[in-house]
Amino acid sequence: MSKTVEAETNRPLWELLMLIQEGKEPLELTCEECFILLDYDTDLVRMGAMTDKIQAAIHHHLSICSVCLRKLTEQ
Ligand SMILES: [Zn+2]
Question: Are 31 and 7 in contact (CB under 8 A)?
């Protein structure tokens, strides 16, 4: 399994959050967007906010992108 997700135009954080909030299905993220959300997620968790949908989108990306999964597990 070495499938990678093709980099598309990265969306700004506010747009990602809006799409995640509206979406019923996990959002398709680019690799850069995935890490932006991971950074944001860490801040939200610290504040005690609900991050279920954000984490679902991140986990969805990690399930289809071995590159990001490897980056995370190597940290
Ligand atoms: Zn990725």
Answer: yes
Return residues with CB closer than 5 A to ligand 1 (ion): 31, 65, 68
Residue 49 CA to ligand 1 center (angstroms) comes to 24
Q: What are phi and psi of 16, to 5 degrees?
A: -60, -45
Average pLDDT over residues 8-36: 86
**How far is Cα of residue 69 from the mean position of the Cα atoms in its chain?**
11
| Amino acid of residue 43 | D
% residues pLDDT > 70 (the chain) = 85
Side-chain half-sphere exposure of 12, counting CA atoms within 13 A: 2
pLDDT in tens, 31-66: 999 999 988 877 877 777 657 888 889 999 999 999
In this structure, what token pair is assigned to residue 30? 């680019």
